[in-house]
Amino acid sequence: MSAATTPSGRGRPSLTxxxxxxxxxxxxxxxxxxxxxxxxYDQCFACGEDQPHGLHLAARAGxxxxxxxxxxxxxxxQGAPGLAHGGVLATALDETLGSLNWLLRVIxxxxxxxxxxxxxxxxxxxxxxxxxCTAVAGRKIYSTAEGRVGGPDGPVAxxxxxxFVEVKLDHFTTHxxxxxxxxAMSDPDQVKVARAFEVNP
Length: 201
Ligand SMILES: CCCCCCCC/C=C\CCCCCCCC(=O)SCCNC(=O)CCNC(=O)[C@H](O)C(C)(C)COP(=O)(O)OP(=O)(O)OC[C@H]1O[C@@H](n2cnc3c(N)ncnc32)[C@H](O)[C@@H]1OP(=O)(O)O
Description:
It is found in: Cell projection, Ruffle membrane; Cytoplasm; Membrane. It comes from Actinacidiphila rubida. By secondary structure, this protein is α+β, with helices and mostly antiparallel strands. It has a domain at 58-167: Hotdog Thioesterase (Thiol Ester Dehydrase, Chain A, Roll). It contains 4 helices and 6 strands; from the N terminus they run ββαββββααα. The chain has a 6-stranded antiparallel sheet with strand order 1-2-4-5-6-3, covered by helices on one side. 30% of the residues are buried. Bound molecules: ligand 3VV. The site of ligand 3VV has 24 residues, from helix 1, strand 3 and helix 3.
């Protein structure tokens, strides 16, 4: 198997939308601009409240199919002394991009994430992230994100382009812990339940 071949035998998909791609459409019931999106799963390493060393990334809906998010780099996120690990920064980009799918009301997983690390991000600094969906083609969702330091208008430290693929709930029950997925369906936090399940049962 070559480096560009997946287990299913498919190659590495392009991050450029195909000619028949459409502009993304914000779902009429998407949270209003400025509204916090909340976590999709308490144990999520990126957004979960119950992950002591997680990023606790908080994303808000923006205009159209866009979001903003913030994440403050903690000592647990270091790679080199005093500097954020690149994989953690990629996680922040991935989660911010993934939260766009909630504005489309689609459950999707990352198929490809291409990251640029433009400048180091010190521990204690806040990464100000923005992401927007650029196109949709069938199950494929194309999006782009960047993270700035020193404020929302500070210099760009990281950026990424991504391809997400829409999946059904059985993606998580087949490959993950199905009992936990089913238990989460009776979560009293109905927003979370809707975000995780109702959109694509
Ligand atoms: C207790 C509570 C629990 C709650 C949880 C439940 C709800 C949660 C809610 C929200 C979740 C949000 C989670 C956010 C987290 C942040 C995001 C992540 O980090 S996700 C993790 C990392 N990613 C993966 O683990 C994916 C691993 N990969 C896969 O599983 C598969 O590869 C997958 C599903 C991505 C695709 O698998 P296929 O078998 O469906 O693929 P095929 O159908 O062949 O292709 C899909 C589309 O892509 C095109 N495609 C495939 N290969 C292509 C190529 N080489 N070039 C162009 N197009 C290609 C195809 O034509 C098709 O598009 P056409 O249906 O035609 O529109």
